[in-house]
Design a protein that fits this description.
Number of domains: 3
Order of helices and strands: HHHEEHEHEHEEEEHEHEHEHEEH
CATH architecture of the largest domain: 3-Layer(aba) Sandwich
Distance between the termini: 45 Å
CATH topology of the largest domain: D-Maltodextrin-Binding Protein, domain 2
Shape: rod-shaped
Number of helices: 11
Strand content: 15-25%
Length: 301
């Protein structure tokens, strides 16, 4: 059968009204147009669907069957339309977002909480990657957006700052370095070091800078979380490097001293990274605006 949704709506209007003229009016069709559509519907079905009488029409047994299925189809179509509109509006679906360690473990959980709470049907597939890996993924189109450190070479991609991400050296409160205001990265390389577990984007970043300096960390242990790292530093096991926000967050629970690092690459900001703001899906654009990002100055909204 070649009956479309508009035909089904018209047929239901006619059946419910018991009149072709009233059904046509409810469907916003001229009587002649509605009558021609009805003729084609019955011809396509190969059977009479309405009984005509002096005071209007009523459905035949076949017409009742068509009306029953038409109501189900239109109801399902309405559900499909509503669901797709929810996806388009960002109220449903899964968004893929890559983030460096500082963003994935520090900035994003708190920033995402109210946005996700207001959208219970939305899921975010959050993956930790180095800033360089995220830039490559965005540039190739594998993901729409990521959160990176502004120290990365983003090429032609658009970066929008959303948070500070200064790296600091943390040491026990009675450590010889605890009294200094600023230290060099080389100081951390010369001391027993508590690192992050293999696969950590931040640790990979630190390892790369150690390699550039022709050195390597003297790891005593590697842990998975910033809190575990702060705890071990507080107990005198060694020193570590974490984002300033993480050092502040755990300082009361695990007392330590946070020291600024001298190198410019340690003074970073977290930035949303996108290839084409205009090409973002509406849900992703809504999320990034919530995080504090905005379009480039030459784009309106």
């Amino acid at each position: 059968m070649r009956i479309d949704l508009a035909d089904l709506r018209l047929f239901l209007h006619i059946v419910d009204a018991g009149s072709i003229s009233q059904g046509a009016a409810q469907a916003h069709l001229a009587l002649a147009s509605a009558s021609e559509r009805l003729r084609r519907i019955e011809a396509d079905a190969g059977i009479a669907l309405l009984e005509r009488h002096a005071r209007g029409v009523r459905a035949t047994e076949a017409g009742e069957a068509l009306a029953h299925h038409a109501r189900r189809m239109l109801r399902r179509h309405g559900m499909l339309r509503d669901e797709l509109q929810a996806f388009a509006a960002g109220a449903r679906g899964t968004l893929r977002l890559y983030a460096n360690t500082a963003a994935a473990t520090g900035f994003l959980p708190e920033a995402l909480a109210p946005w996700l709470a207001a959208r219970p049907a939305v899921r975010i597939a959050l993956k930790e990657r180095t800033s360089a890996e995220i830039v490559r993924a965005v540039a190739s189109g594998r993901i729409e957006a990521g959160v990176v450190a502004d120290s990365v070479d983003a090429g032609d991609l658009h970066l929008a700052p959303v948070a500070d991400d200064r790296l600091v050296l943390i040491v026990p409160v009675d450590h010889p370095l605890a009294a200094v205001r600023e230290a060099a990265f080389a100081d951390a390389l010369a001391l027993p070091f508590i690192g992050l577990a293999p696969g950590s984007a931040l640790q990979d970043h630190l390892d790369a800078h150690a390699t550039d300096a022709g050195r390597a960390f003297a790891f005593r242990i590697r842990v998975r979380t910033f809190e575990d790292l702060c705890l071990l530093v507080a107990r005198g096991v060694g020193v570590g490097i974490v984002p300033a926000g993480a050092a502040q967050r755990y300082r009361r629970r695990h007392p330590h001293r946070a020291i600024a690092l001298r190198e410019p690459w340690t003074r970073r900001r977290l930035c949303v990274c996108v290839r084409d703001w205009r090409g973002l899906a509406p849900p992703m654009r809504d999320l990034l605006v919530h995080l504090g990002a905005g379009p480039p100055p030459d784009i309106d909204g």
